[in-house]
Amino acid sequence: MNRRKLLGSGAALGMLALTGACTTLAAATTPASIQVYGPGGPAPAMKAAALAFERKTGTRVAVTAGPAPRWMGAARVNADIIFSGSENMMTEFSHSFAGQLDPSTIEPLYIRPSTILVRPGNPKNIAGIRSLAAGNHRIMVVAGAGQVGMWEDVAARSGDRELLAGFRSNIAAYASNSGLALERWKSDPSIDAWLIWNHWQAANPEIADQVFVEPDLVIWRPMDVALTQQGRSRSEAVSFVRFLKSDEARGIFEAQGWKR
């Protein structure tokens, strides 16, 4: 091999070695992401908090949200943190992820109230739960996920059986989760009102206005978070849960209707 070829080969090998070293260095210095899973309701605030945490620490937080059947398979493989939309939902998760989710780390972080979504401009002049129960209205409720029993708790909270009966008689649609309820709201203009959590209006202001549930009938349910066994062993995941309790994260959640 002549000198020119030898030099060329050496340069090429050097470049390959440098490229390999750079690739290894890049892989070594890229922060590992935290894998977070949960329902769609708390997701907008959770994703905003994840971005704030990433800007603050450089650690990426991947939030996967929606109906549980869509993500439970992936969560069983790599979840660090699981969040819920209610206590009963987190209880279900603790059974579904038995041995993986650490029950001792379950903690309610933020709560939000029930509210009524109405069509923009409130054309039916809906004034509250009693208005819905007394008038000729078509109501949609969610009867699954984080709202199991929610409409019943609201309508029966006063102890007035007739109020509960009147509200029930006007329910025109039952959705198994909030995502499906949102699709029905968009596609079925005959639905006059949707009993839901307040943050759904904050996330969809262009398609619904909000009418508050009467103070004596409103109920609140929390968003819980829990670490998995894997997440508990990762300092980044523990730090993210700690960040979720910070003043900065509190501001993010409160801007979207949640309360600490």
Give an overview in words.
Strands 1, 2, 3, 4, 5, 6, 7, 8 and 9 form a nine-stranded mixed sheet that branches. By secondary structure, the chain is α/β, with parallel strands linked by helices. The protein is 47% helix and 20% strand. Mean pLDDT is 89; it is low at 1-30. Strand 1 (34-38), helix 2 and strand 2 form a beta-alpha-beta unit. The longest helix is centred in the N-terminal third of the chain and has 27 residues, at 3-29.
List the helices and strands and how they pair.
Elements lengths: L2 H27 L4 E5 L4 H15 L3 E5 L2 H11 L2 E3 L3 H10 L10 E12 L10 H6 L4 E4 L7 H7 L4 H9 L1 E5 L2 H10 L5 E5 L1 H5 L5 E4 L7 E8 L1 H4 L2 H10 L2 H9 L5
Parallel strand pairs: 1-2, 1-3, 5-6, 5-7
Antiparallel strand pairs: 3-9, 4-7, 4-8, 4-9
Helix pairs in contact: 2-12
Question: Quick gist of this model?
Answer:
The protein has 260 residues and is of the alpha/beta class.
